[in-house]
């Protein structure tokens, strides 16, 4: 909903329309394709212990389908969690599902009294006589419960699961669906999407609702693919929107690092994304608010500050990235420093030098992680940004230690550098940005 109370989506009640049903190839959704669709749909609604149930009407049958088995864990009457066993039969058809296929499935399931629910799914429809027969059969046999899912039901369920559509039917997603899927995959699995999808969302960003969770996912996605230069998600937004995203990222640092370590993934995209959001917030002179957020977020449930080791784990890489980026970029055109010193940081091995090693037995030795370098400062030259420097006082970006204890001091220095260095928007550009950026509420 927009700020003036009007609905702005194409879905029910003005919600964004994530899935385009006409783009889902239901006519071709048979056999293995229908099974795959059901597997991920059930996984998306909370099914556990999903597995293929072969035999009988399974593999090799006329419909080419393999049955599925799953369990849903739900609270019983006494509040205890109980497993509910589901059998799933897929009936991929060109026309209406024949009644005999349904009656056979219902009668076969009676052989296993441990089944709580029989789900029969088709890419087309069930006839009214078939549905009437199931009601009569269910009256005689209350267990298992029988569910019939046809194309309209699949459409409705897929509309609520854009990540499943992205996995199986990419063309069936709207731009809002792409955004939803990228966000879900990041926060649930720490997975990143392709650059092509990011480009599509960027091209239609003025029509989309991009909230804090979406913005964090998009920014991390960009850094996972290299850089954020082409699509500056922290620049294309208001001061309040970038601060909201930055705050959410800081409050979720422990969550994100835990998932990273559990999955054995690289932390660089997350580190770079959070560092970028902090700098984007400082650009809008929000250092006091940022420090307040960190004071609140970096505490235990009992309200005690995290131990020093935990703070160093969470913030250390981010603060190092903050300072390193500003040092290298700001000094690159400063008369007090040699530009070559800054470029050494991003220097990489030339691809031709190590090409033939790919056919060897031992490979090329990795470059050392130590990216330190000698820095010579011309103390007689003035600071381009305007800091007061002389013989005893060096560049504050290099001279000031950055830690949790002196964040305010470093944030003040970073804010001044950003204010001097970043492009200045004209009044017309500012007005355009504020009016074109969709509401994230």
TrEMBL record:
Protein's name in the database: Restriction endonuclease type IV Mrr domain-containing protein
Give residue ranges for domain Restriction endonuclease type IV Mrr: 28-158
According to its UniProt entry, the protein's GO biological process terms are: DNA restriction-modification system
Q: Which organism is it from?
A: Nitrobacter vulgaris
Superkingdom of the source?
Bacteria
What GO molecular function annotations does the UniProt record carry, in alphabetical order? DNA binding; endonuclease activity
Q: Which residues form a coiled coil?
A: none
